[in-house]
């Protein structure tokens, strides 16, 4: 028998401490990213932004890809957004899609505080509608896409991402482990199903090459998909 949410194979508190140790040792966030990371607490927003070392990873991969344009699904207070904004440089642009006007407002303030507002655009509303508008407008393709909003919509977001990118683009999808439930094909959880369906869509798409990695750390046990357009 397997529990629905099995204990991760490491002590959660130790994993958290190790994440903090690694981030403190290696990652120089700077005051503006610290302020953005801490901002949800004072605005009754959930504390679900990417971990510091994951944010640094997003910046590094964006720079490694030489990306100038990043599209994000799910802004919250703009912590991951701000890592991308740093990565694309002053000539780059990040477009981030957020349902909640309250979250978007906090994020915009954070970008202004960090002097990054001119390279970040927050589009408020259901992400699928904002993405469709970008498609209809024929915007310049994005180099990196980070999918991190409501999980049942993952397949729709992937489909939109494919309309908004060209070969060579990287598409990342956060939070794919779902407490281990992702491996249960018969799961009735819409978020689990959203992950399973997007995995199947990626696997069936000859234009995508992908892997998925589990992570353990400050946010517990989770993982992400890393896909690249051929
Ligand atoms: N990427 C952020 C965290 C995003 S949390 C970071 O790591 O810093 C997920 C966000 O998705 C929340 O702010 C939530 O309001 C937003 N969201 C949920 N459903 C959405 C939808 N249908 N369209 C757009 N955003 C949505
Ligand atoms: C949740 C969402 C996220 O994007 C995340 O990284 C962690 C948790 C959530 O909705 O609970
Ligand atoms: Mg996430």
Please name the defining characteristics of this protein.
seven-stranded mixed beta sheet; 8 helices; alpha/beta; 230 residues; globular; binds magnesium ion; binds S-adenosyl-L-homocysteine; binds 3,4-dihydroxybenzoic acid
Rounded to an integer, what's the Rg over CA atoms? 17 Å
Distance between the termini: 40 Å
Shape: globular
Q: Which consecutive residue ranges, at least 5 long each, have pLDDT under 50?
A: none
Ligand identities? S-adenosyl-L-homocysteine, 3,4-dihydroxybenzoic acid, magnesium ion
| Structural category | alpha/beta
Structural notes for this entry:
The protein has 230 residues and is α/β, with parallel strands linked by helices. Helices cover 41% and strands 23% of the residues. It has eight helices and seven strands, in the order αααβαβαβαβαβαββ. Strand 1, helix 4 and strand 2 form a beta-alpha-beta unit. The model has no long low-confidence stretch (mean pLDDT 96). The site of magnesium ion has 3 residues, from loops.
What's the quick description here?
By secondary structure, the protein is of the alpha/beta class. Helix content is 41%, strand content 23%.
Write the layout of secondary structure elements.
Blueprint: H1 12-26, H2 31-38, H3 52-64, E1 69-73, H4 79-88, E2 93-98, H5 101-113, E3 120-124, H6 127-137, E4 142-147, H7 154-163, E5 165-174, H8 190-204, E6 208-217, E7 220-229
Bound molecules: S-adenosyl-L-homocysteine (SAH), 3,4-dihydroxybenzoic acid and magnesium ion.
3,4-dihydroxybenzoic acid binds at residues 48, 148, 174-175.
């Amino acid at each position: 028998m397997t529990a629905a949410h099995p204990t991760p194979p490491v002590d959660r508190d130790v994993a958290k401490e190790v994440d903090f140790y690694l981030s403190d040792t290696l990652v120089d966030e700077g005051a503006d990213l610290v302020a953005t990371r801490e901002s949800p607490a004072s605005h009754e927003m959930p504390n679900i932004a990417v971990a510091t070392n994951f944010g640094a990873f997003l910046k590094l991969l964006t720079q490694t890809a030489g990306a100038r344009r990043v599209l994000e699904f799910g802004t919250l207070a703009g912590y991951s957004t701000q890592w991308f904004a740093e990565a694309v440089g002053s000539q780059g642009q990040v477009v981030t899609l957020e349902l909640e006007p309250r979250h978007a407002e906090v994020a915009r303030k954070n970008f202004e505080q960090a002097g990054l507002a001119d390279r970040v655009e927050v589009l408020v509303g259901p992400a699928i509608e904002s993405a469709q508008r970008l498609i209809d407008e024929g915007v310049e393709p994005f180099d990196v896409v980070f999918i991190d909003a409501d999980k049942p919509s993952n397949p729709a977001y992937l489909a939109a991402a494919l309309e908004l990118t060209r070969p060579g683009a990287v598409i990342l999808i956060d939070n794919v482990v779902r407490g281990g439930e992702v491996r249960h094909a018969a799961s009735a959880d819409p978020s689990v199903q959203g992950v399973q369906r997007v995995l199947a869509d990626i696997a069936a798409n000859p234009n995508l090459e992908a892997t998925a990695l589990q992570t353990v750390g400050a946010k517990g046990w989770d993982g992400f998909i890393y896909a690249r357009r051929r």
